[in-house]
Amino acid sequence: MADLVRKLGERIRVLRKEKGLSQEQLGELSGLHTNYIGQVERGEKNLTIESLEKVAIGLGVSLEQVFRYIDPMEQQDELSQINELLSKRPFEDRAMALKIIKDVFEWEHRKYR
User: Which domains does the chain have, with CATH numbers?
Assistant: First the structure.
């Protein structure tokens, strides 16, 4: 259980930083104390369902988005491996990777015209 609490805290930290929010700002938006947000992000506090919902609302994301990538299914194929790698990167890195992939596909399409 402690591993899940830690992973959830890390995911909340990633989402908060992607939104450009400080812990104080997320605390205000979610109606939770700043110290509590910090403890959650460090995996020191186990969130209740109600607090998790408040955090999701404060982040402007769904609960599904909060849990996405926390415990991915068995990684077998290449697409799953790419997803796993990108899930741990900041938004800017994911956007850059998507642009690179699109550019490669566009180049490939033009090559065979």
Answer: 2-67 (1.10.260.40), 78-111 (no CATH)
In the chain, % helix, strand, coil (3-state, to 5) comes to 70, 0, 30
* Both tokens assigned to 106: 């566009």
Convert the pLDDT of each residue in 39-61 to its tens digit: 999 999 999 999 999 999 999 99
Burial class (CB in 10 A: 0-12, 13-18, 19+), 62: exposed
pLDDT in tens, 70-94: 765 555 678 877 877 887 788 899 9
User: What's this model's pTM, rounded to 2 decimal places?
Assistant: 0.67
Nearest CA to 46 out of 1, 98, 91 is that of: 1
Contact yes or no for 20/13 (Cβ under 8 A): no
CA-CA distance, 21 to 62, in Å (whole number)? 17
Q: What is the DSSP letter of 72?
A: P
